[in-house]
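Data deposition worksheet. Section B asks for the primary sequence of the deposited chain exactly as it was used as input, without tags or linkers unless they were present during the calculation. Section C holds the resulting structure in C-alpha cell form. Section D is free text for depositor observations; keep each observation to a single sentence. Incomplete worksheets are returned to the depositor.
Section A, Depositor: J.P.
Section B:
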Amino acid sequence: MTFEKLLEAHKRAKKNKGNRPEIIRFEMDLESNISNLLFKIKNNTYHMGKYREFYVYEPKERLIKSLPYVDRIVHQWYVEEFIKPHFLPKFIKDSYACLENKGCHEAKQRVQYFMRQMKKKYGEYYILKCDVKKYFYNIDKKILFNILKKNISDKELLNFTHVLIFDNEEEKGIPIGNYTSQFFANIYLNELDHFIKEKLRIKYYVRYMDDFLLMVPTKEEAKKCLSIISKFLKDNLDLELNIKSKYYPNKMCVDFCGYRIFETHILVRKRCKKKIKKNIKKWNYLYENNLIDLFSVRQSWNSWVGHVSHANSYNLRENYYEKIKFNQYL
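Section C:
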C-alpha cells in the first residue's frame, strides 16, 4: 500500500463531485490528509466514520447510508486494489451489475438472446424470474465474511476486511450507498450463481444484483428449480425470495432491468411512460407560468430519451415530444 494508490483512490472518489464542501476541505491539505490516512491503515488504527442517513423514493423507498469522504477514499482503494483482482475472475459471465463493460442494457440483450435460443430449441418454454427479499438489509455479515475468508489468504487484508464489514453491532445488512457494498453483494450471490450453473446445470441464467432469471423447457422444471433455489438461499445464505418470484410461459414478456423483453422486440415499462407523462404535464404548467428551468428539463428529458432509446421506442419518443409545448427549446 502506497501514498500514490490512496491518491488515485481520492481522484476516483471525487469524480463528478469535486465541488462538494467536504471534498474541497480535504483537498485544502491533501498531502497531510492522505499521509494521515495511510498511517492509520498501516498501523491498524483506522475506523470508519459516522454514517449520514437519508431516504430515496425512486423506484421505491430505500434507506441510504453515506460515509464521510475519507472513508469513501478507503473503499475505492480497497475495492480496486484487492476485491476486483481477487473476485472478478471468479464471477460467472452472466452476472451484470456494477461491473465494467456490463450493466442493465447488456443484461437485457443477453436475456433476449437466451429467449431466442430457447424458442429455437423448444418452441415453448418456461421462465423463472426471482428477486431476493430486502436483499441488502438481509445479508448476513458472518456468512459474507466466511465467503471472503475462503478466497483471501492474506491475514492483514482479511483483518482489514473484517473492519469494513463489522462496522457496527448489527449482525445483518450492508449499507446501500457504500462502494464496497455493491461488490460484497455481488460476491454474496456469486455463491448462488455457481450453484445454479454447476449444480443445477442451467445454461440460460442471468443475474443483475438480486434480480435473476433462468429459462427451462417445462413448467415442472421451473417449479422444481424455484423450490431448490429457495432452499439453497435459506440454507446457505440465510436469504428468502420475494413473494413476487414466479415462473410463467414464454408467451408472456420478461420484465427485467427496466424493460419488457420479448423474443422479437423490447419495450419500456408502463411505469416509465407514466412517469414521463406526469413530468410533461408539470413542465407545460411551469412553462405557461414562466417558471420553467430549461436546463433541468433538458437533463431530465435527455435522460429519459437515453433510457427508452435502448428499446423499440421511436414512435413513443415522437409522441411524447409532440406533447411538450416548448419542444423547440429541447
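Section D:
The chain has a mean pLDDT of 94.
The beta strands are 52-56, 62-66, 126-131, 205-208, 211-216, 246-249, 254-256, 259-261, 266-268.
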